[in-house]
Design a protein that fits this description.
Blueprint lengths: L2 H10 L1 H21 L4 E11 L8 H22 L3 H10 L9 H6 L2 E6 L2 E8 L2 H26 L5 E5 L3 E4 L4 H28 L1
Antiparallel strand pairs: 1-3, 1-4, 1-5, 2-3
Helix pairs in contact: 2-7, 4-6
Length: about 200
Protein backbone atom coordinates (compact mmCIF):
# COMPACT_ATOMS: atom_id res chain seq x y z
CA UNK A 1 0.00 0.00 0.00
CA UNK A 2 1.39 3.36 -1.06
CA UNK A 3 1.47 6.40 1.21
CA UNK A 4 -1.24 8.20 -0.80
CA UNK A 5 -3.50 5.16 -0.36
CA UNK A 6 -2.87 5.23 3.40
CA UNK A 7 -3.71 8.95 3.57
CA UNK A 8 -6.89 8.40 1.56
CA UNK A 9 -7.84 5.45 3.76
CA UNK A 10 -7.42 7.39 6.99
CA UNK A 11 -9.39 10.33 5.58
CA UNK A 12 -12.19 7.89 4.90
CA UNK A 13 -11.89 6.12 8.26
CA UNK A 14 -11.17 9.14 10.43
CA UNK A 15 -14.27 8.53 12.55
CA UNK A 16 -13.06 5.05 13.45
CA UNK A 17 -9.53 6.25 14.10
CA UNK A 18 -10.45 9.17 16.34
CA UNK A 19 -13.22 7.19 17.98
CA UNK A 20 -10.72 4.57 19.18
CA UNK A 21 -8.24 7.27 20.19
CA UNK A 22 -10.96 9.08 22.11
CA UNK A 23 -11.98 5.87 23.85
CA UNK A 24 -8.44 5.28 25.08
CA UNK A 25 -8.06 8.88 26.26
CA UNK A 26 -11.40 8.69 28.08
CA UNK A 27 -10.29 5.48 29.78
CA UNK A 28 -7.07 7.20 30.84
CA UNK A 29 -9.01 10.14 32.26
CA UNK A 30 -11.29 7.82 34.24
CA UNK A 31 -8.27 5.93 35.56
CA UNK A 32 -6.76 9.22 36.75
CA UNK A 33 -9.99 10.28 38.47
CA UNK A 34 -10.56 6.97 40.24
CA UNK A 35 -7.02 5.88 41.06
CA UNK A 36 -6.30 5.36 44.74
CA UNK A 37 -4.66 7.98 46.93
CA UNK A 38 -1.82 5.78 48.11
CA UNK A 39 1.73 6.66 49.09
CA UNK A 40 5.14 5.08 48.64
CA UNK A 41 7.32 5.15 51.74
CA UNK A 42 11.08 4.75 52.21
CA UNK A 43 12.37 4.03 55.72
CA UNK A 44 16.04 3.74 56.68
CA UNK A 45 17.15 1.74 59.73
CA UNK A 46 20.52 2.39 61.32
CA UNK A 47 22.17 -0.33 63.40
CA UNK A 48 24.11 0.86 66.42
CA UNK A 49 25.14 -0.51 69.84
CA UNK A 50 23.71 0.21 73.28
CA UNK A 51 27.24 0.64 74.67
CA UNK A 52 30.88 0.59 73.60
CA UNK A 53 32.96 -2.56 73.96
CA UNK A 54 36.26 -1.96 75.74
CA UNK A 55 39.17 -3.88 74.24
CA UNK A 56 42.92 -3.51 73.98
CA UNK A 57 42.94 -4.61 70.34
CA UNK A 58 40.91 -1.97 68.57
CA UNK A 59 41.68 -2.98 65.00
CA UNK A 60 40.45 -6.55 65.43
CA UNK A 61 37.48 -5.40 67.47
CA UNK A 62 36.41 -3.00 64.71
CA UNK A 63 36.80 -5.71 62.08
CA UNK A 64 34.71 -8.30 63.90
CA UNK A 65 32.20 -5.67 64.94
CA UNK A 66 31.56 -4.77 61.30
CA UNK A 67 31.11 -8.45 60.49
CA UNK A 68 28.65 -8.78 63.37
CA UNK A 69 26.77 -5.68 62.18
CA UNK A 70 26.45 -7.16 58.70
CA UNK A 71 25.11 -10.44 60.08
CA UNK A 72 22.60 -8.61 62.24
CA UNK A 73 21.50 -6.39 59.32
CA UNK A 74 20.88 -9.56 57.29
CA UNK A 75 18.87 -10.92 60.23
CA UNK A 76 16.68 -7.81 60.20
CA UNK A 77 16.03 -8.27 56.48
CA UNK A 78 14.97 -11.89 57.12
CA UNK A 79 12.72 -10.79 59.99
CA UNK A 80 10.95 -8.32 57.72
CA UNK A 81 10.30 -11.11 55.21
CA UNK A 82 8.55 -13.27 57.80
CA UNK A 83 4.74 -13.22 57.37
CA UNK A 84 4.14 -13.62 61.12
CA UNK A 85 6.44 -10.70 62.02
CA UNK A 86 5.04 -8.48 59.27
CA UNK A 87 1.52 -9.31 60.44
CA UNK A 88 2.45 -8.26 63.98
CA UNK A 89 3.89 -4.97 62.68
CA UNK A 90 0.80 -4.07 60.66
CA UNK A 91 -1.52 -5.11 63.48
CA UNK A 92 0.43 -2.83 65.84
CA UNK A 93 -0.01 -0.04 63.28
CA UNK A 94 -3.79 -0.58 63.35
CA UNK A 95 -4.08 -2.39 60.02
CA UNK A 96 -6.10 -5.60 59.68
CA UNK A 97 -4.17 -8.30 57.80
CA UNK A 98 -6.54 -11.24 58.31
CA UNK A 99 -7.44 -11.37 54.61
CA UNK A 100 -3.85 -11.00 53.38
CA UNK A 101 -2.16 -13.99 51.79
CA UNK A 102 1.27 -15.22 52.90
CA UNK A 103 2.77 -13.83 49.69
CA UNK A 104 1.35 -10.36 50.33
CA UNK A 105 2.64 -10.40 53.92
CA UNK A 106 6.08 -11.56 52.84
CA UNK A 107 6.45 -8.74 50.31
CA UNK A 108 4.67 -5.96 52.22
CA UNK A 109 7.92 -4.57 53.62
CA UNK A 110 10.51 -4.64 50.86
CA UNK A 111 13.81 -4.59 52.73
CA UNK A 112 17.47 -4.84 51.79
CA UNK A 113 20.83 -4.29 53.47
CA UNK A 114 22.60 -1.28 51.95
CA UNK A 115 25.73 -1.52 54.12
CA UNK A 116 26.93 -3.17 57.29
CA UNK A 117 24.83 -0.82 59.41
CA UNK A 118 22.01 0.38 57.15
CA UNK A 119 18.82 -1.41 56.11
CA UNK A 120 16.38 0.21 53.69
CA UNK A 121 12.67 -0.57 53.78
CA UNK A 122 10.09 0.34 51.13
CA UNK A 123 6.36 -0.07 51.66
CA UNK A 124 2.99 1.36 50.66
CA UNK A 125 0.56 3.29 52.87
CA UNK A 126 -2.84 4.91 52.48
CA UNK A 127 -1.90 8.11 54.32
CA UNK A 128 0.94 9.99 55.99
CA UNK A 129 -0.41 8.93 59.40
CA UNK A 130 -0.45 5.28 58.37
CA UNK A 131 3.05 5.57 56.92
CA UNK A 132 4.36 6.88 60.24
CA UNK A 133 2.46 4.22 62.20
CA UNK A 134 3.95 1.39 60.14
CA UNK A 135 7.43 2.87 60.53
CA UNK A 136 7.09 3.19 64.31
CA UNK A 137 5.67 -0.33 64.61
CA UNK A 138 8.54 -1.68 62.51
CA UNK A 139 11.29 -0.13 64.62
CA UNK A 140 9.56 -1.20 67.84
CA UNK A 141 9.16 -4.80 66.66
CA UNK A 142 12.75 -5.05 65.43
CA UNK A 143 14.12 -3.79 68.74
CA UNK A 144 11.88 -6.17 70.71
CA UNK A 145 13.12 -9.10 68.62
CA UNK A 146 16.69 -7.89 69.12
CA UNK A 147 16.32 -7.73 72.89
CA UNK A 148 14.66 -11.15 72.95
CA UNK A 149 17.61 -12.49 70.99
CA UNK A 150 20.01 -11.01 73.52
CA UNK A 151 18.07 -12.34 76.52
CA UNK A 152 19.95 -15.61 76.15
CA UNK A 153 23.20 -14.15 74.81
CA UNK A 154 23.61 -11.53 77.57
CA UNK A 155 26.15 -9.69 75.46
CA UNK A 156 27.36 -6.21 76.30
CA UNK A 157 27.26 -3.65 73.52
CA UNK A 158 24.23 -5.38 71.96
CA UNK A 159 22.46 -4.05 68.88
CA UNK A 160 19.99 -1.19 68.91
CA UNK A 161 18.10 -0.11 65.79
CA UNK A 162 17.08 3.50 65.23
CA UNK A 163 15.16 4.88 62.28
CA UNK A 164 15.27 8.06 60.28
CA UNK A 165 12.03 9.88 59.49
CA UNK A 166 10.23 8.05 56.67
CA UNK A 167 10.18 9.69 53.25
CA UNK A 168 6.60 9.66 51.97
CA UNK A 169 5.71 10.35 48.32
CA UNK A 170 2.32 10.10 46.54
CA UNK A 171 2.07 6.99 44.38
CA UNK A 172 -0.53 8.41 42.00
CA UNK A 173 0.33 8.86 38.34
CA UNK A 174 -0.05 12.39 36.96
CA UNK A 175 -2.71 13.14 34.36
CA UNK A 176 -0.03 13.98 31.78
CA UNK A 177 1.75 10.65 32.31
CA UNK A 178 -1.47 8.71 31.94
CA UNK A 179 -2.62 10.58 28.82
CA UNK A 180 0.75 10.17 27.12
CA UNK A 181 0.78 6.42 27.76
CA UNK A 182 -2.83 5.76 26.72
CA UNK A 183 -2.40 8.18 23.81
CA UNK A 184 0.49 6.16 22.37
CA UNK A 185 -1.30 2.87 22.93
CA UNK A 186 -4.52 4.29 21.50
CA UNK A 187 -2.74 5.58 18.39
CA UNK A 188 -1.30 2.17 17.53
CA UNK A 189 -4.58 0.43 18.33
CA UNK A 190 -6.53 2.84 16.12
CA UNK A 191 -3.95 2.68 13.31
CA UNK A 192 -3.92 -1.11 13.10
CA UNK A 193 -7.70 -1.33 13.48
CA UNK A 194 -8.13 0.83 10.38
CA UNK A 195 -5.52 -1.18 8.43
CA UNK A 196 -7.01 -4.54 9.40
CA UNK A 197 -10.53 -3.37 8.52
CA UNK A 198 -9.27 -2.27 5.10
CA UNK A 199 -7.70 -5.65 4.32
CA UNK A 200 -10.73 -7.57 5.61
CA UNK A 201 -13.00 -5.58 3.28
CA UNK A 202 -10.57 -6.05 0.39
CA UNK A 203 -10.77 -9.84 0.67
Amino acid sequence: MEIRHIVTLFKKEYKTFFGIMGGFLLAGLLFFLFQGSGYNVSLTLNITRDSAIQTSDYSYDDFYRLQADERFADTIVRWLQSPSIVSDIYTEAGIDTTTWSLGVLKNALGSQRLSSQIVAINYAADSQVQADAIGEATITKVNVLSQDLNAQQKESGWFVVIAQKPIVKPSQHSLLQILVIVGVIGFFAAFWTVIVRYYLRAE
